[in-house]
UniProtKB/TrEMBL annotation:
<dbReference type="InterPro" id="IPR029035">
    <property type="entry name" value="DHS-like_NAD/FAD-binding_dom"/>
</dbReference>
<dbReference type="GO" id="GO:0050660">
    <property type="term" value="F:flavin adenine dinucleotide binding"/>
</dbReference>
<comment type="similarity">
    <text>Belongs to the TPP enzyme family.</text>
</comment>
<feature type="domain" description="Thiamine pyrophosphate enzyme TPP-binding">
    <location>
        <begin position="381"/>
        <end position="528"/>
    </location>
</feature>
<dbReference type="InterPro" id="IPR012000">
    <property type="entry name" value="Thiamin_PyroP_enz_cen_dom"/>
</dbReference>
<dbReference type="GO" id="GO:0005948">
    <property type="term" value="C:acetolactate synthase complex"/>
</dbReference>
<dbReference type="InterPro" id="IPR045229">
    <property type="entry name" value="TPP_enz"/>
</dbReference>
<feature type="domain" description="Thiamine pyrophosphate enzyme N-terminal TPP-binding">
    <location>
        <begin position="1"/>
        <end position="105"/>
    </location>
</feature>
<dbReference type="Pfam" id="PF02775">
    <property type="entry name" value="TPP_enzyme_C"/>
</dbReference>
<dbReference type="GO" id="GO:0009099">
    <property type="term" value="P:L-valine biosynthetic process"/>
</dbReference>
<dbReference type="GO" id="GO:0009097">
    <property type="term" value="P:isoleucine biosynthetic process"/>
</dbReference>
<dbReference type="InterPro" id="IPR011766">
    <property type="entry name" value="TPP_enzyme_TPP-bd"/>
</dbReference>
<feature type="domain" description="Thiamine pyrophosphate enzyme central">
    <location>
        <begin position="185"/>
        <end position="317"/>
    </location>
</feature>
<dbReference type="Pfam" id="PF02776">
    <property type="entry name" value="TPP_enzyme_N"/>
</dbReference>
<dbReference type="GO" id="GO:0030976">
    <property type="term" value="F:thiamine pyrophosphate binding"/>
</dbReference>
<protein>
    <recommendedName>
        <fullName>Thiamine pyrophosphate-binding protein</fullName>
    </recommendedName>
</protein>
<dbReference type="InterPro" id="IPR000399">
    <property type="entry name" value="TPP-bd_CS"/>
</dbReference>
Length: 538
């Protein structure tokens, strides 16, 4: 077989069933061979969209996502999406190929430089006879490190005949399970055992390790309420002592409870400034952190004990050792706290600012949470609107939620949601975007339509770049230049083969969901008209 066929076969042997991409000289033969080997090729409108789709596929499917783009401008177009994937620690491979070795090639470009710029790893196949092994090694490496790789299979090699030497590896769900360091575990147990008002905090890592039941058992044993990071969202939903998302998104009860704690035990959580409210929630507390990655760049918290280990394995070890010494819980899990949590109503935390022809996005998202099927995937773009879906739109488990805030770029949400829909075809995928990011990403609805990937796109349209509007207003400057006039979003959707409606009242929103139905056949856009002067962050 020739090199492109060997690349396709190595991917299929690993278990890769879907590649997102845009065809060009560097990858067209490989993509034809991949489809011929039984794979699915999802052809995107833009290379950056293809990488975002593979990113969403990886995050929601918990497996290696694969995108493929051509050299030169194809690689240049993925910089923003690839940087987002790197910072999200997505298991992602972008397959490309350097231009033929002649100095006047119009698409010559520094591929290694792009990888370095984004933070991705760069791997180049140097010899045709090594291609199968190299591809297999890259896929396995990415599944372990969760650092995206830009894989360069140079065009000069594509015509060479090779033998298949790729090992067959399991390309299923990603796992990173290993036990904790015993010395660190002993120190952590000393801190936990002496705490009187502990809180157990879980992040995405805890969810990925399957630690939910072990963490609940640990929390009950030590008398701790439970909370999550944003990416651990809804891991404990329905439990009587679930505080919900901690930090700047936390409810009043959640924040007051964590402030009153004397110890926080964090499992698989980044402990960034948002989770810790810039450190204020951890002040004057003992902090134990359990994580497989001791060097997470976003962790800004001061930690008393770091335990390097898998969340589930470590939680189980803690439970067993605490039970062995007869540990008894304190009284932090009180009847009063359980009653406050049971009585919590998010509508009581803000004043509804809906107008005659606009909806407060908080009120709208609370109602959508009630109306949309509960078995869903939620993906958000970036912008001021995100505070509403992050707080009020729930998911069945944390891996059914993700966002594209890691590089703080708008416009990636819809493509990421398309990848999520491909990874979870049995669930309704809901993308929540702003008007600016929504218009940037709307072109990929074409991809969703022609690939048969229905999803719901909720556009919170305040006719402005909302963050900038509020920032200018706070600075005493004229916010008018941040106001924008867009085409009709549902009309744009229909031009792409999708459908949609604009809503300005609660009755119209409820009617839109009825029209949507439980299983939309094509992407469906719900444009919610909102007021840029309403501050939903307060």
């Amino acid at each position: 077989m020739k090199v492109p066929a060997a690349v396709a076969k190595a991917l299929r042997d690993f278990g890769t069933d879907t590649v997102f991409g845009l065809m060009g000289d560097a990858n067209m033969r490989f993509l034809v061979d991949f489809v011929g080997a039984g794979g699915r090729f999802v052809s995107a409108v833009d290379e950056g969209g293809a990488v975002s789709m593979a990113d969403g596929y990886s995050r929601v499917g918990n497996r290696v996502g694969v995108a493929s783009v051509t050299h030169g401008p194809g690689v240049a177009n993925v910089v923003t999406a690839l940087t987002e994937a790197v910072r999200a620690r997505s298991a992602l491979v972008v397959v490309t190929g350097d231009t033929a070795s002649r100095p006047n090639h119009l698409q010559r470009f520094d591929l290694r430089g792009v990888a370095d710029l984004t933070g991705a790893e760069y791997r180049r196949v140097l010899r045709a006879e090594d291609v199968s092994r190299d591809v297999a090694e890259v896929l396995h490496r990415v599944s372990v490190t969760r650092r995206p790789v830009l894989l360069d299979v140079p065009v000069d090699l594509h015509g060479e005949e090779v033998e298949d030497t790729s090992p067959r590896r399991n390309g299923g769900p990603l796992r990173q399970a290993f036990g904790p360091d015993e010395d660190a575990l002993d120190r952590a147990l000393g801190v936990v055992a002496s705490a009187r008002r502990p809180v157990v905090l879980a992040g995405r890592g805890a969810a990925l390790s399957g630690a939910r039941e072990d963490l609940l058992e640990l929390a009950e044993l030590i008398g701790a309420p439970v909370a999550t990071t944003l990416l651990g969202k809804d891991l404990f939903r329905g439990e009587p002592f679930d505080l919900g998302v901690a930090g700047t998104l936390g409810s009043r009860v959640s924040t007051e409870t964590i402030l009153a704690a004397d110890c926080v035990i964090a499992f698989g959580a980044g402990l960034n400034d948002y989770t810790t409210a810039e450190g204020s929630l951890l002040a004057d507390k003992a902090v134990v952190r359990v994580d497989v990655d001791p060097h997470r760049w976003e962790c800004t918290a001061q930690v008393d004990v770091l335990v390097v280990g898998d969340a589930r394995t470590t939680a189980r070890a803690m439970v067993e050792q605490l039970r062995a010494v007869g540990h008894r819980p304190g009284g932090f899990r009180s009847e009063r706290l359980a009653a406050e949590l049971a009585a919590y109503d998010p509508r009581e935390e803000f004043v509804d600012r809906s107008g005659a022809d606009t909806l407060d996005p908080r009120t709208a998202l609370i109602r959508l949470d009630e109306l949309l099927p509960a078995d869903r995937v939620v993906v958000t773009d970036t912008g001021r609107f995100v505070y509403a879906p992050w707080r009020y739109l729930h998911v069945p488990e944390p891996t059914a939620f993700t966002h594209t805030l890691n590089f703080a770029s708008i416009g990636l949400g819809i493509a990421t949601a398309i990848g999520a829909a491909a990874a979870a075809p049995d669930r309704l995928t809901v993308a929540v975007v702003g008007d600016g990011g929504g218009m940037m990403g709307m072109v990929e609805l074409v991809t969703a339509v022609r690939s048969g990937l229905p999803l719901v796109v909720v556009v919170c349209n305040d006719g402005a770049y909302g963050m900038e509007y509020r920032a200018l207003e706070r600075a005493g400057a004229d916010p008018t230049p941040s106001l924008l006039s867009w085409p009709d979003f549902p009309a744009v959707a229909r031009a792409y083969g999708a459908d949609g409606v604009t809503v300005r009242t609660m009755a119209e929103l409820e009617a839109a969901v009825v029209r949507l139905g439980a299983a939309p056949q094509v992407p469906f856009v719900i444009e919610i008209r909102t007021d840029p002067t309403v501050d939903i962050v307060d």
